[in-house]
C-alpha cells in the first residue's frame, strides 16, 4: 500500500496552521470554490467544527489567504477511529501538495489522540477525490446508499495509521 510522507515539504509560500475564528469566512469561501456545483456545508457547520474539533481543524494559507482546510475528529467511544470530516483546496492551488499535507497533518493529530485508523466518506461520482485518497493509502470499505439523503450515496474509505 502506497503511503504519503507527512514531512514532504510544502512550497515555502504556503503554511499549515490551526484554524482560528477569523479564518472561517476564508474556509467557507474555499468550500464554495472547491465544491462548486455541489451541496455545500452551511456556514454554521464550520463554526461548530471549530468549536468541537479545535486542534483537528487546520487551514493552509498562502500569503495570508486561506487556500485550503481539513477537519478531523476522534470518535468519542470505544472505537479508536478518527474521521476526516472535510478537506478542500481552492482549485488554483490544487496539485501543489496542499491537500496531501493537510491530510497528513490531521492524521498526525488523530494518531496523537490514540487513533489507529482514519475513515472518511467520498461522493462516488467524485473520481478526483477517490483517486486522491487512494493515492494516500485509503481503501474503499463500503458504500452507503442515500447517506446524505436521496441519491446522496457515499463511499466509506479507511486507512490504518502507523
UniProtKB/TrEMBL annotation:
Leader sequence residues: none
GO molecular function, one term: acyltransferase activity, transferring groups other than amino-acyl groups
Lineage: superkingdom: Bacteria
Gene3D superfamilies linked: 3.40.630.30
Gene Ontology cellular-component annotations: ribosome
Listed InterPro entries: Acyl_CoA_acyltransferase, GNAT_dom
Residues spanning the membrane: none
A Pfam family that the UniProt record links to this protein: Acetyltransf_1
Keywords: Acyltransferase, Ribonucleoprotein, Ribosomal protein, Transferase
Positions of the N-acetyltransferase domain: 14-162
Designated name of the protein: Ribosomal protein S18 acetylase RimI
